[in-house]
Structures are given as C-alpha cells and as structure tokens.
Design a protein that fits this description.
The protein is α+β, with helices and mostly antiparallel strands and 164 residues long. The protein has a four-stranded antiparallel beta sheet. It has a three-stranded mixed beta sheet with strand order 4-1-7, with no helix packed on it. It has three helices and seven strands. β2 and β3 form a beta hairpin. The chain has two domains: 103 residues, Sandwich (Immunoglobulin-like), CATH 2.60.40.1120; 53 residues, no CATH class.
Length: 164
C-alpha cells in the first residue's frame, strides 16, 4: 500500500471537479474513531493528493492498516468548520486513486472559490472563442470582405454574400 492517495472530488451529474473541498484520510474501524493520516484541499479541477503525515502516530496507524491489523481507511469531505459534508467513503485496501462523488448542492462555496470559478470560466471561454475563430479562419468559413465594401452600397454586397 502506498503512503499517497490521489483522487478527484466530482459532481456526479456533470462530472465536473469541485474545488476547495478539504479531504481527510483516516484509519480505523469507523471514520469517527480512527486516526487522521493526512489532509488535502481539492484543486480547481477537483483533484487532490493526500500523503500520510511524517509523524509517528500517523505512520503507525498506516502500518496497522497495511498489515491488516486495522480494517479500513476512510475519506471524509469536510467544510471549513471541519464538519462532514457527506458520509465517509471506505477506501479499498491497496487503492492509490479514488473518485469521490459529491453533489454540488452539498458544498457551500466561499467568495474565494467563486472568484476562482469566475476566472476559470472567463479564461476557458476566451480560449474556446479564440480556438473557434482560428478554426473558422483556417477553413475560410468566414468571408473576408474588404472594408471598402461596407460603404453605402457595400451592405448590399454583404447581404448578397450571406444569401448565396
């Protein structure tokens, strides 16, 4: 078993990642009675990486799981107040990647998370618009009319080109 667990927090209906969710990895019979191995915060695409803390208690708890003396490890999604956002997810022994589904309605985004989302959407829209424009120009789907055609009679030429 590896000391690193990677995964994604995603919204199940859209498949989009959910950013800024705290992910806690615990070892124990149940999630609430176990020892915390490590934590991480999901990135803009929902991806996270939790590494077992380099502390004696965390390493010992991880070894108990690795050698079958502790039955489970758990992933918990937490809000800013360390409250569970949903029921803990049992992690299969030996897993090094997991996908955690969380309904976006369960999340309470803060102002910083909303600003990150706005920036991401704006950037992607600009990139997609630029890519579409480049594709259209490459395939000459957009007629290139000289500016002199847009004079008083130029509008007729443009309309004729659109109808052809």
């Amino acid at each position: 078993m590896q000391r690193i667990l990677t995964g994604w927090v995603i919204e199940p209906e859209t498949g989009l990642g959910i950013a800024r969710v705290t992910v806690a990895w615990r070892a124990g019979v149940t999630a609430s009675d176990g020892y915390e191995l490590g934590t991480a915060v999901s990135g803009p695409d929902g991806e996270f990486t939790v590494e077992v803390r380099d502390e004696p208690e965390a390493l010992e708890a991880f070894c108990r799981v690795e050698h079958g003396r502790e039955p489970n490890t758990w992933l918990m999604l937490l809000d800013g107040d360390e409250q569970w956002l949903q029921e803990p997810l049992a992690v299969q022994r030996g897993a090094n990647e997991v996908r955690v589904e969380m309904r976006a309605a369960d999340a309470q985004p803060d102002a910083e998370a909303l600003q990150e989302l706005t920036s991401w959407l704006t950037t992607n829209r600009m990139l997609e618009t630029g890519e579409v424009t480049q594709q259209l120009l490459r395939h000459r789907a957009v007629p290139r009319l000289p500016a002199r055609h847009l004079g008083s009679g130029g509008a007729r030429h443009v309309r004729a080109a659109e109808c052809a």
